[in-house]
Amino acid sequence: MSGRKLDQLYRQVIMDHYKNPRNNGTLDDESVTIDLNNPTCGDEIHLHLKVENEIITAAKFTGSGCSISMASASMMTESIIGKSEKEALKMSRDFSEMVQGHEHDVIDENGDVEALSGVAKFPARIKCATLSWKAMERAIFEFEGKK
Predict the structure, then answer these.
(1) pTM greater than the 0.85 cutoff
(2) Under DSSP, is residue 57 helix (H, G, I), strand (E, B) or coil?
């Protein structure tokens, strides 16, 4: 597939997640909620994460922001459900490497997260893309602290 067609496909995937976010909403009291914002552009995320026996059993988010930040939150929640805390943290590190243009492991099986690899070309958008991932890391650390 040519670079132009791949970029177009990636844009379609990002816009689909932005317009039809997966796991949008809240969870009950058994979850941890992390609120983060990006003061540079005004993006905000409210991530609700539920972990049982070190496995992420549910993840939902609410918030507002640009298409990159909201699509990233949708992709992130979709990709971490069913993963261990350790796997999710590794995914977050790999995601951070990817959006900075560095070598990284495959992040998710369905490949949607890879659509955000183009963010590396726009350094100002890296914080938008990583906001929900940073919230997920904090939520896992909060769960760890409660043990």
Answers:
(1) yes
(2) strand
- One-letter amino acid identity for 53? N
Q: The domain that contains 31 carries what CATH number?
A: 3.90.1010.10
Contacts 24+ apart (CB under 8 A), 61-65: 61/21, 61/23, 61/24, 61/25, 61/132, 61/135, 62/24, 62/25, 62/26, 65/38, 65/41, 65/128, 65/131
pLDDT 10s per residue in the chain (147 long)? 666 776 787 889 999 999 999 999 999 877 899 999 998 889 999 999 999 999 999 999 999 999 999 999 999 999 999 999 999 999 999 999 999 999 888 788 778 999 999 999 999 999 999 999 999 999 999 887 775
Q: Are 71 and 18 in contact (CB under 8 A)?
A: yes
Task: Please tell me the total count of domains within the chain.
Answer: 1
CA 70 to chain centre: 8
Contact 85, 56 (CB under 8 A): yes
**Which structural domain range is residue 117 located in?**
3-146
> Packing angle between helix 126-146 and helix 85-99, nearest 10 degrees?
160
Task: Report the sign of the C-alpha dihedral through residues 89, 95, 97, 103, in that order.
Answer: positive
